[in-house]
């Protein structure tokens, strides 16, 4: 059985922890690898490697740091197919979708290649007579990234290029469910010339995360995962004095008005609900549709769902399995619950006939209509291929139900009315809004993050906010007198003159 080791100080690291976690191939339904689960001493070793590497990396010129990241980008471009295969073999998403997540991660890397410009300070000459003022942005030190299973390459890459380009050193704690992508990225960074210890991968579970949250040498935590853990990470890391951005779960609504292009809405709902088997934080999980067009839209969606080919992601299917058997069963239980809660299951994914091994963690696309707004299937994050339908009277009720929800990650409206869309974008309480766009993940030069229970902390991922998260600003006021002794004696508070 292959063991996935940690990657510390530029090489494979076994550590002292004796615990191992299973890694499955979800389309085969078999355990293919085991991953090391760090003990507290392994956290110390990874952080020590990053702390030791920090001064050297910080003191490299912008040009030298950019050179390494640029080489990394070239290598990634040439070899991304290998990474996509690894992702599919541990996560289950189809290979084209895995390639898509790598491409979106690479966009952040390419944005970070402009870091010398992005992290520039300002300079004002003669703010007082003979006095100049300027600002610098400097790295924090050792920063940690804790990532979820659903984007094993993209989510780490939301942060790591930003952290490295600004001169920080990193300890990444990836999901223990699909750990190998992180090691592949670490090896590629080394090949690109990244000095040992600048980027480290520590595998594990709560023990590893707690160790990072408490470690005095870790300056910042970028977390992405479910809401309860995001809140836990935010509370504990801020209590320990760290800078934190903790992105949590979601329940994203797509609101379809009566004047919408229903074919566009149907295609968008199907793609956004069932891509990656619904295991995306920006997946659409609730369709809120104006009653007068609801039956028509549900018909168009059901017809499309019948054409989704579920199976092994390596074999040209549209939708793969869920990540583990346990998660598959949990999602299937929600479908059972929907029936008990009085909803109507229009398409039942439990009946799916997959193109793949019988033991795979399969659940087909599921459509549930007339979902009650107090029901658990409506209020809880399911994180699987289940699309719930609620019927609304109009735009106002659509906005009201979205704003009543606990989460505020993404939401979308489908309409041909500019006025309706503008009202929606003004009034709806979510961090990322789509207008006739179902998965509005911001491009790399904007920033990613939700509102309410979908994000804790006020600095979003990547874009300009990412630059700020990974740097501290220093403001300098300086005087270089041409002649000696020009200051004069004055105990008053300094004023500009
Ligand atoms: P998760 O919360 O179970 O795990 C996330 C990370 O936290 C993993 O690295 C895991 O090892 C660690 N972890 C798990 N339990 C822990 C504990 N008790 N204490 C400390 N650390 C712990 O999430 P997941 O199942 O891997 O990912 C799916 C979730 O992530 C969904 O809720 C999804 O919405 C969310 N997500 C959010 C975004 C976003 O940008 N908002 C993006 C992707 C995923």
Structural notes for this entry:
- This protein is an alpha/beta fold.
- It folds into two domains: 2-248 and 454-476, Aldehyde Dehydrogenase, Chain A, domain 1; 252-435, Aldehyde Dehydrogenase, Chain A, domain 2, CATH 3.40.309.10.
- 39% of the residues lie in helices and 23% in strands.
- The protein is built from 15 helices and 23 strands.
- Strand 4 (20-25) and strand 5 (30-36) form a beta hairpin.
- Helix 2 (62-91) runs antiparallel to helix 6.
- Residues 146-151, 155, 173, 175-176, 205-206, 209, 224-226, 229, 232, 247-250, 281, 381, 383, 409, 450, 454 line the site of nicotinamide-adenine-dinucleotide (NAD).
- Nicotinamide-adenine-dinucleotide binds next to helix 7 and helix 8.
Tags for this model:
single chain; 497 residues; alpha/beta; Aldehyde Dehydrogenase, Chain A, domain 1; Aldehyde Dehydrogenase, Chain A, domain 2; 2 domains; six-stranded mixed sheet; 15 helices; 23% strand; globular; binds nicotinamide-adenine-dinucleotide
Ligand kinds = nicotinamide-adenine-dinucleotide
Provide a count of the helices: 15
Please state the average pLDDT score.
97
Number of strands: 23
- Profile the largest sheet: 7 strands, mixed
Shape: globular
What top-tier CATH class of the largest domain fits best?
Answer: Alpha Beta
Total domains? 2
CATH architecture descriptor name of the largest domain: 3-Layer(aba) Sandwich
Residue fraction in strands:
15-25%
């Amino acid at each position: 059985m292959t063991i996935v080791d940690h990657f510390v100080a530029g090489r494979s690291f076994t550590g002292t922890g004796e615990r191992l976690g299973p890694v499955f191939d979800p389309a085969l339904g078999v355990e293919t690898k085991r991953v090391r689960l760090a003990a507290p001493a392994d956290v110390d070793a990874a952080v020590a490697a990053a702390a030791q590497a920090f001064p050297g990396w910080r003191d490299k010129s912008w040009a030298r740091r950019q050179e390494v990241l640029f080489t990394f980008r070239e290598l990634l471009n040439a070899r991304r197919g290998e990474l996509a295969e690894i992702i599919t073999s541990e996560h289950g998403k189809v290979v084209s979708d895995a390639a898509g997540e790598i491409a979106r991660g690479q966009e952040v890397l390419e944005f970070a290649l402009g870091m010398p410009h992005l992290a520039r300070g300002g300079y004002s000459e003669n703010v007082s007579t003979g006095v100049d003022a300027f600002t610098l942005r400097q790295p924090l030190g050792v920063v940690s990234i804790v990532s979820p299973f659903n984007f094993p390459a993209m989510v780490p890459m939301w942060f790591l290029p930003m952290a490295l380009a600004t001169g920080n050193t990193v300890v990444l704690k990836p999901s223990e469910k699909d750990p190998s992508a992180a090691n592949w990225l670490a090896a590629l960074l080394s090949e690109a010339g990244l000095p040992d210890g600048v980027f480290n991968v520590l595998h594990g579970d709560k023990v590893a995360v707690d160790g990072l949250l408490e470690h005095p040498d870790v300056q910042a935590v970028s977390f992405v995962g479910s809401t309860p853990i995001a809140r836990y990470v935010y509370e504990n890391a801020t209590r320990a004095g760290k800078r934190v951005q903790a992105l949590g779960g979601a329940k994203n609504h797509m609101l379809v008005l009566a004047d919408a292009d229903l074919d566009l809405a149907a295609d968008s709902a199907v793609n956004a609900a069932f891509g990656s088997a619904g295991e995306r934080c920006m997946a659409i999980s609730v369709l809120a549709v104006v009653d007068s067009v609801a039956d028509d839209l549900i018909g168009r969606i059901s017809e499309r769902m019948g054409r989704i080919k579920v199976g092994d992601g390596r074999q040209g299917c549209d939708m793969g399995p869920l990540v583990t058997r346990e998660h598959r069963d949990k999602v299937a239980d929600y479908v059972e619950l929907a029936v008990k809660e009085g909803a109507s299951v229009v398409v039942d994914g439990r009946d799916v006939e997959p193109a793949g091994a019988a033991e795979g963690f399969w659940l087909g696309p599921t459509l549930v209509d007339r979902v009650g707004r107090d029901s658990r299937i409506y209020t809880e994050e399911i994180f699987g291929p289940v699309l719930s339908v609620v019927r609304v009277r109009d735009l106002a009720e659509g906005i009201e139900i979205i704003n009543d929800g606990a989460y505020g990650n993404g939401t979308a409206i489908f309409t041909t009315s500019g006025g309706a869309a503008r009202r929606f974008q003004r009034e709806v309480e979510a961090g990322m809004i789509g207008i006739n766009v179902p998965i509005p993940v911001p491009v790399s030069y904007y920033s990613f993050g939700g509102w309410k229970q979908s994000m804790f902390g006020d600095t979003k991922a990547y874009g300009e906010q990412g630059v700020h998260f990974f740097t501290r600003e220093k403001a300098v006021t300086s005087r270089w007198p041409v002649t000696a002794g020009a200051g004069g004696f004055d105990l008053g508070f300094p004023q500009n003159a």
